[in-house]
Amino acid sequence: MKFLFAAAVAATAILSASDAVPVKTLAVEDVGSESAIPHVDEEDVRSQFQHEQLFLSFKDMFNKQYASEEEEERRFANFKASLVRIEKQNKEHMAAHGTAVFGVNEFSDMTVEEFKREKLNRKPAPRDLTKADVLTPATPLGDTTHVDWRNKGAVTAVKNQGQCGSCWAFGATEAIESQWYIHKHHLVELAPQQLVSCDTVDQGCNGGDSPSAYQYVEQAGGIMPEADYPYTSGTSGSNGQCMFNATEVAASITGFHYATQPCYDSCDNQDKATLTANVATQGPPSICVYAESWMDYTSGVFKGHCPHGYNKLDHCVQLVGFDMSGAEPYWTVRNSWGTNWGESGYIRISADDNVSGGNLCGVMDEATIPEV
């Protein structure tokens, strides 16, 4: 139903690109005075009405409830701004012959700054990337034109980080889950909450990074299962008290490797061949990307404005595969914003060499695979 709503919004060109002008309320003494009657633009009234109807549908679909009338007015203003932004993105993608569709989703009542604070919190710890340990692809390479680790049983269900900037913990945990399955033949859902609450190098809901998360898991002796350490920071918005129990560890690692040479500058010449070979033969890595542009994404292959460069990366996710066989090659990326976002929690990002050298959003800037 989400896609129908988003498609309806897109099909009607997201209504109007300008805020509606409110109709003036007349005082009693103005009645009968022709000069006091304001000019009312019928298009403005129609647009305002349609905005209000869409907002009602949006609140019902995503079970939105606001604490006060003032907050509801503020959220409605944010929603109208989102419609303008969505319309602009759809027009730009159509002009570029892209297939992505942008539409209304659960973030449409947020400002961009609010969205960034809550969802985008990659904060790297200092490290020397010039001496990075890059994994050597296994042999034989096999098919390196189309890979999807979901079809091989190595990917757990999409999660939702909620109101906590814990993307880094989810990205690292998901990569460990996949490697544990590949090497131990057992798929277990692990506990990102342990990283959020117990990793003192990273900053919990205030951000972190996959490499330092791996280092914590290695030093702690492993990571507990989600069943024994459920995720609570998504609703509380706080890190919570560390409740790690070493006797309940479900998976452990001995280190990590980069899936391709990481960059530490503009990242214009990343090694796509090594990344695709390692994803194909070693498994799905955690990657850190620039994701502000993903806020309104609903479906299709994303090829919009999305810079790369080490200092621009703001979000950590999991690269579960790619398809380089068609006219529109793409990376398949698993997000941590729940299944109501994107393509049931996933996004396809252009891997076309003519679009940022295949490194759109920085997909190849920091790709890491833990060692089990």
How would you sum up this structure, described in words?
The chain has 372 residues and is α+β, with helices and mostly antiparallel strands. 44% of the residues are buried. The model is unreliable at 1-40 (pLDDT under 50). It contains nine helices and ten strands. The strands form two sheets. Strands 2, 3, 4, 6, 7, 8, 9 and 10 form an eight-stranded mixed sheet that branches. α5 (167-184) packs across α6 (192-198).
How is this fold's topology laid out?
Blueprint: H1 2-11, H2 42-61, H3 69-95, E1 101-102, H4 112-119, E2 146-148, H5 167-184, H6 192-198, H7 210-220, H8 233-236, E3 255-258, H9 272-282, E4 286-289, E5 297-299, E6 301-302, E7 315-323, E8 330-334, E9 346-350, E10 367-371
Parallel strand pairs: 6-9
Antiparallel strand pairs: 1-5, 2-7, 3-10, 4-7, 4-10, 7-8, 8-9
Based on the model shown, name its key terms.
two-stranded antiparallel ribbon, disordered N terminus, single chain, 9 helices, 372 residues, alpha+beta
How would you summarize this macromolecular structure in one to three sentences?
This protein is an alpha+beta fold and 372 residues long. It is built from 9 helices and 10 strands.
Give the termini separation: 41 Å
Helix/strand class = alpha+beta
According to DSSP, the number of beta strands is 10
Could you tell me the radius of gyration in angstroms? 23 Å
Mean pLDDT: 87
Helix tally equals 9
Largest sheet: 8 strands, mixed
Strand percentage: 5-15%
Report the principal-axis shape. Answer: globular
The helix/strand series, from N terminus to C terminus, equals HHHEHEHHHHEHEEEEEEE
Query: Poorly predicted ranges (pLDDT <50, ≥5 residues)?
Result: 1-40
Helix content range: 25-40%
